[in-house]
């Protein structure tokens, strides 16, 4: 990983431009801001519904 080669970066970006540390920070930020609502009534009435 330190040399930015290998399967981890294949298909995501070119090995020259890929920054695995920046990618991990973005993933962790997205994960921390993820909200899962299990109450379907709240999901439906709180959503942006297009009719």
Weakly predicted, low-confidence segments: none
H-E string: HH
> Judging from the principal axes of the Cα atoms, what is the shape?
elongated
Radius of gyration: 18 Å
**Helical/strand content category:** mainly alpha
Number of helices, where a helix is a run of at least 4 consecutive DSSP H or I residues: 2
User: Could you give the count of β-strands?
Assistant: 0
Strand content: under 5%
Major sheet attributes: none
What is the rounded distance between the termini? 48 Å
Query: What's the average pLDDT?
Result: 75
Helix amount, in percent? 25-40%
Give a description of the structure.
This protein has 51 residues and is mainly α. It has helices spanning 20-32, 40-46. It is elongated and about 50 Å long. The model has no long low-confidence stretch (mean pLDDT 75).
Short account of what is shown:
By secondary structure, the protein is mainly α. The chain contains two helices and no strands. It is 39% helix and 0% strand.
Comma- or semicolon-separated keywords:
single chain, 51 residues, mainly alpha, 2 helices, 0% strand
């Amino acid at each position: 990983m330190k040399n930015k080669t290998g399967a981890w970066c294949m298909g995501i970006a070119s090995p020259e431009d890929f920054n695995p540390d920046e990618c991990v920070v973005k993933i962790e930020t997205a994960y921390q801001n993820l909200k899962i609502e299990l109450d379907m009534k709240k999901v439906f009435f709180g959503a942006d519904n297009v009719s």
